[in-house]
Every structure is written in C-alpha cells, then in structure tokens.
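Q: Given only this backbone (404 positions), what sequence would you predict?
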C-alpha cells in the first residue's frame, strides 16, 4: 500500500480509517505492507508540522504491519513534480523488499502518480478514493486532468462511496467502472450504552441537552455553521444545552472567536482528537450528532453514531446521503442555520427510546467491515488477473454488484 496518510507514533490518528482497513485485511490472511513517503521540505510546512514530520520513524510496526517512510524532495508550489517524486520514491522503496502482487494507491492523490511507473513494470495498481483526495484535487486544486490520466494508466479504481465513484469514473473516462469498497464500523466498540452512565464517566451534568460535532476543524466540515445552528436552536427553544466539538484544525481560532462573540463560552466545549474508546463514550453521552459539511467522502462519524443509536442531523454532502438513506429527518438539504435549527429542534424534541436507537443500530449493521473487505478482495483479484491499465470489466461480477 502506497499512501500519503497513515498513523504513526507521532500522529496516531492521521489516516486511522486506512489503518483499520489494512489491519483487518491482514487478519483475513493477506500480507500487507505500507509505504508512506515523507517530504524533505522545512520551508513548505509550519514549524510544528515540520517538527512532527522530522520525528516520524523511518520504519515502525503497527498492528503487525510494517510501515516504511522514505524521504523525497518536496519543492513548494511544484505540485505535479512533488507527486511524481512522492510516487517514484515510494515505488523504489516498495520494490526493494520484493515484488508485490498488487499496489494500492490508498488516497488517490498523490499516490496515483505511481500508476504509469507501475504499468511500465507490469505491476497492477488500484487507486483508492476516500474523499478530498479526489474531490478537492479535481476541484479547487485543478488537477482533475492529472488524476484522470493516472486512473486511466492504472485501469483499476475503487472508492468508499458511490458519489466518489461517479467522479472517478468521469475523470477516468469509463462510466460505471469503479468498485464500491466502503469502510465499515466496529459494532463491538460503537454500541448503545446507558446515557446516564456515560455522562457520569465523563463527569458531565445529567440534565442539559448535548450536541456533538466530531471532525477536523476545517473549511469543508464548516464547524462555524454547526455553532450557528446550535446557537439559533438554543435561542429559539430557550433550552439548557451544551455543544461539544471533538477535533482540531486550522479553523480552531476562528471558532473560538465566534464562540466569544456569541457569548457562549460556558456552554461550548472543545476537545482535541480522541482515541476511539473515548469517542464511543461521547456518542453515548450525547443527544444528537451535528454534521454540517459541504463536502464529504463517506463520513465514518455517521456510521459510528448510528451504531451507537445516536440521532444525527447532517447536511447533504457527498456520501453522507448514502449512509442515511431510509432514515427520516436526518438529512438536511439546506445550509441556512435557522432552518437547520428547526430540524435540530425536531430531533431533540422527540428523543429516541431504546427501540428507536435499536433501529439506528440495525441500520448501521448493513455497513460491516466484512462486506467492504470482500469487495476490496474482489477488486484486487481482478486487478491482478487483468494486469495494469486493463480494467476491462471494472472488477469481477461480485465486485461490480457491490456498487449497488
């Protein structure tokens, strides 16, 4: 696996969903190794970020998988050249330890730049799309043509949502070609629990409503809209409530300023990233999850909340709607905070009893890791059988069926 994002001892949550996928593939009997090239470019990153990159070990083992991190020269404002350097460095490192059956470019950009070099060596490569690595690259970054060329050179691609597949099929100029390989949810970890016990364990008051926002504090997640929605609801409902953000990112400062402007500092809490075990406690303690993204791949927080039986209010974005199909009142087709506040009021005014939470958990049961991994295996087997750049069938019949 060739990737630009994977957890490390320094950044344990970066690319955590990729790690969950590949540790499960290893548990199914596959030999898995990860190559995670890192840049040599102190002037291209902030001081803190560069310090973290420098500290990442050249090689480490996590969950029985060896992660190797060769260094490549990264030149600011040379996006295409940097992608080639990333890919070439990564591929050389991969081949030093032997020839694999197949390479997965996990996170489509920049790893898909290895497609042409792999094809020249007769080595199958599958491009795996997860979200911004496709949507942002093809959109704001203006690299859609480059990504499309990489997809055609690979001949095989998959993605975590049907929405992403549509974009990749269009860029690769092969309608209905890609294979749906969704992430799953750990139903043992993320499960309904007693709300009172969860709040007591977290030291929380048992009475006020708690709205939870989980995710990076970045533009596409739009945490400011979540804050304004919650504030509009509290003003209209005159309810005692709190809002909890779990995550960090470049919009943290803007969010703190808005919190101060609204005068709600005592009601809003910000927590940095949490390990899954602690996050599961917060899902159990909350009354609703609020997700106000304007772009998404297939948000894992939705799966986790559903598995915990937690009601959701989410704006329509990418693969979010795919996860909420058949659940009334949880998907908003507006970005007006006042309208969202009305929907939030409807969610909180009719709290789910045990049976209702069971319906949400049953909905989440459709999204198991085993289903996604079976689709991934079929996709990889097709790439190995057909070879690089072929991709004539878009995978086996079983894999194509998974698109539905």
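A: Predicted residues:
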């Amino acid at each position: 696996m060739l990737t630009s994002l994977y957890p490390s001892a320094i950044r344990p949550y970066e690319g955590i969903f990729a790690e969950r996928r590949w540790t499960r593939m290893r548990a199914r009997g596959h030999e898995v190794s990860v190559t995670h090239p890192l840049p040599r470019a102190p002037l291209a990153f902030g001081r803190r970020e560069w310090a973290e990159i420098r500290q990442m070990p050249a090689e480490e083992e996590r969950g029985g998988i060896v992660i190797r991190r060769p260094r490549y020269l990264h030149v600011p404002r040379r996006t295409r050249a940097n992608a080639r350097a990333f890919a070439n460095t990564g591929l050389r490192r991969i081949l030093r330890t032997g020839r694999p059956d197949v390479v997965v470019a996990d996170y489509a950009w920049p790893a898909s730049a290895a497609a042409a070099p792999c094809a020249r060596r007769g080595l199958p490569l599958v491009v795996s799309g997860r979200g911004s690595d496709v949507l942002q690259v093809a959109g704001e970054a203006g690299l859609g043509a480059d990504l499309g060329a990489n997809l055609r050179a690979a001949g095989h691609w998959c993605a975590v949502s049907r929405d992403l597949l549509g974009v990749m099929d269009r860029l690769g100029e092969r309608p209905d070609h890609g294979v749906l390989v969704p992430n799953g949810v750990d139903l043992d970890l993320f499960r309904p629990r007693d709300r009172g016990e969860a709040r007591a364990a977290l030291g929380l008051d048992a009475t006020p409503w708690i709205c939870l926002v989980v995710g990076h504090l970045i533009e596409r997640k739009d945490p400011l809209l979540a804050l304004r929605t919650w504030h509009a609801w509290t003003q209209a409902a005159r309810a005692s409530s709190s809002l909890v953000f779990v995550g960090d990112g470049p919009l943290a400062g803007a969010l703190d300023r808005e919190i101060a402007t609204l005068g709600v500092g005592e009601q809003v809490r910000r927590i940095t990233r949490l390990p899954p075990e602690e996050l599961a406690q917060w899902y159990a303690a909350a009354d609703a999850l609020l997700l106000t993204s304007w772009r998404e791949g297939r948000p894992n927080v939705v799966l986790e909340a559903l598995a915990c039986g937690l009601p959701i209010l989410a704006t329509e974005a990418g693969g979010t709607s795919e996860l909420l199909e058949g659940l009334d009142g949880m998907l908003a087709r507006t970005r007006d905070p006042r309208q969202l506040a009305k929907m939030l009021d409807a969610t909180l005014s009719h709290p789910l009893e045990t049976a209702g939470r069971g319906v949400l958990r049953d909905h989440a049961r459709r999204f198991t890791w085993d289903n996604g991994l079976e689709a991934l295996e079929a996709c990889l087997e097709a790439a190995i059988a057909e070879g690089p750049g072929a991709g004539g069938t878009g995978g086996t019949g079983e894999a194509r069926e998974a698109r539905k």
